């Protein structure tokens, strides 16, 4: 069926999210000529205005094409755009339209996306908690919140112990990180997995020092230890450490993923369906990773549509490890945005089985929460950190 309309929709609720950018969501609605509707989601970051206008541009390429031809449509945008694999705005816009197309496709065929991709390898998906530590500053803060997370049933949790440090980690910064990680390890015991988020903010020397200091606490992985564009730095980190590495939330294409995989720079790949090219490209990257013996831990930090479609991929990929989840720390409006909720129970989600991405969007709430996109204000605390943690003690 032909695509009639592609519409970007920016949403915001009064209640903020665990990070500044989590208080906004960008949905993309695809409508076909016979009135079938599908939803995708794009990444807001600090550029909602630019992403919205990128969606409008991508729409020019998709409208009038057959919604089922996801591969061809994605190829066509690549051909038109010229800068696709180097533009975050372009890839996130194209990703959202691709996800919405898969949603329509599933609805047309009466099947959830995971059935179209090879069928369920698993029906329950293990999650790790993120977003659970707003306002945690001291080791005691982290320890008591971490205990709550484990009480909720999670067996893995991620956090950033580096406070306000950026680029360079001095002795004090290193000591503070060690004390926070030690406090969490002691609070959760040896059986819970600890994932150390660096948010890609260190130079290689500092990241290597952090790896040496934190390795005794047996982290499952170190996430984005160096600035993401610093591939040489990542090589140095690999040569100087024995910790396991996760990265990938800023990878924009299959070939970029191949670079990291073929150089042996990553153990767990964290591509994000909403910026790597949607379902169509994420499937390819996941199979490529399988061939390299790398497991998938998809990045999933934005909203309920991203969460639903990511669960669809978790269901089918043999080399899946664990799913990031903010679900329990979403602002309530994000959970309410979909009718069929995807709750986390005992640290696991059940893969939604309804056609398409498996959930239905509450269109009335979409209209209530719709806002005009705006530029994002800059504050001392960057918008990508969990709120209230950009401090030392
Ligand atoms: O791995 C992640 O989830 C990402 O690095 C980010 O998206 C941040 O953690 C998030 O912004 C914090 O709220
Ligand atoms: Mg991250």
Element layout with pairings:
Layout: E1 3-12, E2 24-32, E3 37-42, H1 48-62, H2 70-81, H3 88-109, H4 113-116, E4 124-129, H5 139-151, E5 156-159, H6 171-188, E6 193-197, H7 204-214, E7 221-223, H8 231-240, E8 245-247, H9 254-262, E9 268-269, H10 278-291, E10 295-296, H11 304-316, E11 323-325, H12 332-336, E12 348-350, H13 363-369
Parallel strand pairs: 4-11, 5-6, 6-7, 7-8, 8-9, 9-10
Antiparallel strand pairs: 1-2, 2-3, 4-12
Helix pairs in contact: 1-3, 2-3, 5-6, 6-7, 7-8, 9-10
Bound molecules: D-gluconic acid and magnesium ion (MG).
Magnesium ion is lined by residues 197, 199, 223-224, 249.
Description:
The chain has 393 residues and is of the alpha/beta class. It has helices at 48-62, 70-81, 88-109, 113-116, 139-151, 171-188, 204-214, 231-240, 254-262, 278-291, 304-316, 332-336, 363-369, and strands spanning 3-12, 24-32, 37-42, 124-129, 156-159, 193-197, 221-223, 245-247, 268-269, 295-296, 323-325, 348-350. The strands form three sheets. The protein has a six-stranded parallel β-sheet, with helices on one face. A three-stranded antiparallel β-sheet has the order 1-2-3. It has a three-stranded mixed β-sheet with strand order 11-4-12, with helices on one face. α6 packs parallel to α7 (204-214) and α9 (254-262) runs parallel beside α10. The longest helix has 22 residues, at 88-109. The chain starts with a strand and ends in a 24-residue tail after the last helix. The model has no long low-confidence stretch (mean pLDDT 96). The site of D-gluconic acid has 13 residues, from loops. Belongs to the mandelate racemase/muconate lactonizing enzyme family. GaD subfamily. Keywords: Lyase, Magnesium, Metal-binding. This is gluconate dehydratase. It holds the Pfam family MR_MLE_N.
């Amino acid at each position: 069926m032909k695509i009639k309309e592609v519409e970007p929709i920016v949403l915001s609720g009064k209640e903020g999210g665990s990070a500044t950018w989590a208080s906004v969501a960008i949905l993309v609605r695809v409508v076909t000529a016979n009135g079938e509707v599908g939803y995708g989601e794009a990444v807001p970051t600090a550029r909602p205005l630019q992403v919205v206008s990128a969606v409008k541009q991508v729409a020019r390429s998709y409208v009038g094409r057959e919604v089922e031809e996801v591969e061809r449509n994605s190829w066509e945008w690549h051909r038109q755009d010229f800068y696709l694999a180097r533009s975050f705005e372009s890839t996130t816009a194209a990703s959202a339209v691709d996800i919405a197309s898969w949603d329509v496709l599933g609805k047309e065929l009466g099947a959830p996306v995971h059935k179209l991709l090879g069928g369920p390898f698993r029906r329950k998906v293990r999650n790790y908690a993120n977003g659970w530590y707003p306002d945690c500053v001291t080791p005691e803060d982290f320890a008591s919140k971490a205990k709550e997370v484990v009480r909720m049933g999670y067996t893995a949790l991620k956090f950033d112990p580096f406070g306000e440090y950026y680029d360079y980690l001095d002795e004090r910064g290193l000591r503070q990180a060690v004390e926070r990680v030690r406090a969490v390890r002691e609070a959760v015991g040896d059986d819970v997995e600890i994932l150390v988020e660096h948010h890609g903010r260190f130079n290689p020397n500092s990241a290597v020092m952090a790896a040496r200091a934190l390795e005794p606490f047996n982290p499952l992985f170190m996430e984005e230890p160096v600035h993401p564009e610093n591939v040489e730095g990542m090589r140095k980190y690999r040569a100087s450490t024995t910790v396991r590495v996760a990265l990938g939330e800023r990878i924009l294409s299959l070939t970029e993923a191949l670079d990291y995989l073929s150089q042996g720079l990553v153990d767990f790949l964290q591509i994000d369906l909403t910026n790597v090219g949607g379902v169509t490209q994420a499937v390819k990257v996941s199979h490529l990773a399988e061939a390299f013996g790398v497991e998938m831990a998809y990045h999933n930090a934005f909203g309920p549509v991203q969460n639903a479609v990511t669960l669809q991929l978790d269901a089918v990929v043999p080399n899946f490890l664990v799913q990031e989840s903010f679900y329990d720390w979403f602002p309530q409006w994000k959970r309410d945005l979909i009718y069929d909720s995807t709750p986390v129970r005992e640290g696991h989600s059940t893969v939604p089985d309804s056609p398409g991405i498996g959930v239905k969007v509450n269109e009335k709430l979409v209209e209530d929460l719709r806002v005009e996109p705006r530029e994002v204000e800059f504050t001392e605390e960057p918008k990508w950190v969990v709120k209230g943690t950009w401090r030392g003690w």
